[in-house]
Amino acid sequence: MSSKRFKKLPTKTTELTSETIDKLLSVVKKNCTTKFDESVDLSFQINNKQKKSEINIRTVVNLPGGTGKKVKVAVVCEDSKSSDAKTAGADIVGSDDFIEKIKGGEMNFEKLICTPAMMIKLSKLGKVLGPKGLMPNPKLGTVTDDIKKAVTDAKSGQAEIRNDKDGNIGVSIGKKSFPDDKLIKNFNAIIETLEKEKSNNTVKGDLIRSAFITSTMGVSYRLKLGKSI
Question: Which of 4, 126, 207, 208 has its CA at a distance of 20 to 30 angstroms from the CA of residue 198?
Fold first, then answer.
């Protein structure tokens, strides 16, 4: 059953003609009628001209305007690199002892970074970390010797872009409280990343069939693709 708040929102918005993000942001923000600072979210559908299972997008993008979220970052590294991790702002740092805690189910973090040397030991916990999306991955920059950069990127505003088995991609570009220019910069960064992924996946035609923008508790609008100024 819809709430009184939701019933006051516009209806059939997905049937409207698609518009550019700069024209839709004010509309989406107007629909943010909850008491909390809602996220502004994008939803993409991969083009069905090719088999969705053949397209495997999984990458990260550094959002220039940040995400508005505090991310708890953990690092598994050699003792000699622990000071670098702490200086960069890692919330949890450890080596063999920390791996044992993770093995025991202690996973009070949202992103895990690991050095290549320690990854040999950590990889044995695939069944524990994998289902939660926490297993470090070189492609995502979370298996690296450059611990400082990895932690800084994770803390400063980094979003993961990946498609599910049905060809959907969901990603947030920030909060309602963000000025429009910040949200547009984040949007452009995501579009650039998707364009690169199209080349990497040798996609025939357009990678994205449709795109929508909404807020956490709002309604969706059809989004016209392309970078915005």
Answer: 126
- Whole-prediction pTM: 0.84
Q: Which residues of 121-148 are buried (b: 16+ CB within 10 A; e: fewer)?
A: ebeebeebbeeeebbbbeebbbbbeebe
Q: What is the pLDDT of residues 44-82, one digit of tens each?
A: 998 765 555 567 888 999 999 999 889 999 999 999 999
The CATH number of domain 13-57+163-222, selected from 1.10.260.40, 3.40.50.150, 3.30.360.10, 3.30.190.20:
3.30.190.20
Q: Where in the chain are the domains? A: 13-57+163-222, 73-157
